[in-house]
Design brief:
Strand content: 25-35%
Shape: globular
CATH topology of the largest domain: Quinone Oxidoreductase, Chain A, domain 1
Radius of gyration: 20 Å
CATH class of the largest domain: Alpha Beta
Oligomer: single chain
Mean pLDDT: 95
Structural class: alpha/beta
Number of domains: 2
Low-confidence stretches: none
Bound molecules: zinc ion
Largest sheet: 7 strands, mixed
Number of helices: 13
Length: 343
């Protein structure tokens, strides 16, 4: 089969590999569509990823919709050949300290699926068991492939405890920020979108943001005056992944408000924090990572309800052979997400 392998920074090669076969409990799927993603872009630029592409050359890609072509021994109950499937890119073990406490995103032994920029992908047994679903017939493959990133956003959104009537500000209007905007609006809250790029701000408005601000401006006063409290947003989501955005996210949150840190910064990054904001202002700074089987299930429902708008995130389409161009379009922000076609 044809598959893209990450060799290093901006070194992505499409090669001929042996066709994979499913082992016990595994499902072999033909990839119908794979979506590019912000964490893949980070790996592409840096040349590796601590979790997703630790040893190069590495199989690449994790958001997909596919068709079951072969079941491994032992997979009998829920899936059969020809089923169109969608899945998360990992599943927790269910046995470690964190899983036993329901903190599945912190599982010590997450099992990952990698290599969806390929003609075929093997879905690991644990994902088949916990995080694999059959695509609803009325959903497009592009929408179905959003299940994994939306699951992460649902997990982060649940931790934010956003309520109807709240004002929630979102830093960063890439695919993740745009999905947050949809969930904020679905909840009946007011969404403030903040991004330095005009195109991204236009997307945010299109996705339903009530107020759209240029991140290059002095935004603190604007966020405050747009919030019912008068001194900052009830909820702030950081979906950029740099310390400056983390710092600014904290600065526009009201007393007693909640800041959700979604964007991962480079390892070792540090922020300075005025302790009075945590203590006297009772600020909650909440780190969120990844997803849980519950957020995946919830994401499937939300995706189905909002698939017409969410599927617009796949702004471009390219064949697997041109995947390098897809990442160039991601890097220049020309594309929000690129749908990679493998056939
Ligand atoms: Zn992703
Ligand atoms: Zn675990």
């Amino acid at each position: 089969m044809k598959a893209a392998l990450l060799y290093g920074a901006r070194d992505l090669r499409v090669e001929e590999l042996p066709d994979p076969r499913p082992g016990p409990g595994e499902v072999l799927a033909r990839v119908d569509v794979a979506l590019t993603c912000g964490s893949d872009l980070k790996s592409y630029v840096r040349g590796s990823h601590p979790v997703l592409a630790a040893d190069v050359p590495a199989p690449f890609g994790h958001e997909f919709c596919g068709t079951v072509v072969e079941l491994g021994p032992g997979v009998v109950e829920d899936f059969q050949e020809g089923d169109v499937i969608m899945s998360a890119n990992s599943a927790p073990c269910g046995e470690c300290y964190y899983c036993r406490r329901g903190q599945y995103s912190l599982c010590d032994d997450l099992q990952f699926l990698q290599g969806t920029y390929a003609e075929y992908v093997v879905v690991p047994a644990r994902i088949v068991e916990r995080n694999l679903y059959i695509k609803p017939a009325d959903m497009s493959p592009e929408a179905a492939a959003l299940l994994e990133p939306l699951s992460c956003v649902v997990h982060g959104f649940e931790e934010s405890n956003t309520e109807a009537g709240d004002t929630a500000a979102v830093f960063g209007c890439g695919p993740i920020g745009l999905m947050f905007i949809r969930l904020i609006k679905q909840k009946g809250a007011q969404a403030i979108a903040i991004d330095p790029t005009p195109e991204r701000r236009a997307w945010a408005a299109d996705f339903g943001a009530d107020i759209v601000l240029d991140a290059n401006d002095d935004i603190a006063e604007k966020v405050a005056s747009a919030s019912p409290s008068g001194d900052g947003a009830d909820v702030v989501v950081e979906a950029v992944g740099n310390v400056e955005a983390w710092r600014r996210a904290i600065s526009v949150t009201r007393k007693g408000g909640r800041v959700v840190m979604f964007g991962g910064c480079p390892a070792g990054s540090k922020i300075e924090l005025d302790t009075s904001r945590l203590h006297y202002d009772e600020l909650s700074v909440i780190g969120v990572f990844h997803h849980t089987p519950f957020s995946v299930r919830r994401a499937l429902t939300l995706l189905h309800e909002d698939m017409d708008i969410l599927s617009r995130l796949a702004t471009h389409e390219l064949p697997l052979d041109e995947i390098d161009d897809a990442f160039k379009m991601m890097e220049s922000q020309e594309a929000v997400k690129v749908a990679i076609r493998t056939r």
